[in-house]
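For reproducibility, we list the full input for the adenosine monophosphate complex.
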Amino acid sequence: MTLPFSDMIPVEEARDRILSFFHRLEPVRVPVLDSLGQVLAADVIAPFDIPPLDNTAMDGYAVRAADTTGATEADPRELAVIADLAAGYVLDTPVGPGEAVRIMTGAPMPPGADSVVPFEETDETLREVGEAPTKGDRVRVFKAANPAANIRFRGEDVKAGQVVIAAGRVVRPSEVGVLASLGITEVVVYRRPVVAILSTGDEITEPGQPLLPGRIYDANAYSLAAMVKKFGGEPMLLGIAHDTVEDLTAKLRQGFAADMIVTSAGVSRGDFDVVKDVLAREGAIDFWTVRMRPGKPLAFGAFNAGDGRRVPHLGLPGNPVSSMVSFELFGRAAIFTMLGRHDWERPMVRAITRDRVRNPDPRRFYARCIVTKGEDGAWYANLTGPQGSGILTSMSAANALAVIPEDTTLAEPNTEIDVLMLDWDHAP
Ligand code: AMP
Ligand code: MG
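The corresponding predicted structure, in tokenized form, follows.
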């Protein structure tokens, strides 16, 4: 029996129903580098000023600006070099009138000096390598220095006690850098979800094992585990379950410790009897027909983990492209929700299709395509080839999914279509 299209549920409705089962997980303390992509659960307060001391932004000479007034190349000012100061060292000796300290970027300003003259504005650059002025030498300054020039002032970046990164922010490489610059080694973030992944089907074989006639290797567990990692979760591979009640039940139960269980295959009509029985016995399950292609059949429910916990279950179709596209649309949002992130939506851009895209029935068609920028600055989309839901290499060739609406039967070449950018993290 085929369901009338009007009885299929739209993608958005399926996603809303799924997301109603998910919530942000609890906060945990983790090493800073491990928190990449997670959401801060508490404000980060600066324990001290950054920079902690006034320091030089240039390699040059720390001087008293007044000593250089009127200096030109024709009429330089000559100063006595009293010290050579590298970054990491503090000089307590004050710079007196007519004196200078040769100073390296990042070194704290010595007392008395109020400006830094870069090497380029002195005779240092005229000298041979290895002949730079040192303590006891004299240096000639060719340009008048402005007070405060080339100095990075204490606290100009961050003030002690200030909220440097607010709770709710996603940790990116720049946040990792800011945290490290404050000497912070651990942060409190919402926990990463553990996502258990189970492949089903008598024909499925673990990669690395010999492939018997009629069998295929398990692509889904691996593409899904990779997506889980990419989206910020921790995959837990449960292996492959045969199409028997005993095996399926045993393997599923191993996933009850996870925050979510993802299975692939066995949800299409005619095939799901075993799966359906097991799922229904272990919890509650709904079989949906989602108005999309690929990925029409979808099961969603929750297992009773025994300890009062209910573990949400996403049952994906077996075809490798269908399972990936479904997990992109539903699994990503679920993982982000558990991470406390709201930015799961991929950026959608308008692109000009170079191919004719046919949408044979009133479902939303997600067509694998390659989107590139044309000379004219516009985005162009080319289909990656045959769109069969078993053709995984055409998913690998794609960087986007063209979204052909339910009510559109045809997109003609050189017309605009929406494309979902799969390699772009999220909309700004
Ligand atoms: P099913 O949903 O069980 O009808 O499976 C649909 C198609 O996907 C069949 O051709 C299966 O052999 C294939 N398939 C199911 N599971 C996997 C898997 N883990 N890796 C690769 N292909 C699969
Ligand atoms: Mg099957």
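The first strand starts at residue 27 and ends at 31. The mean pLDDT is 94. Both points were considered when choosing residues for closer inspection.
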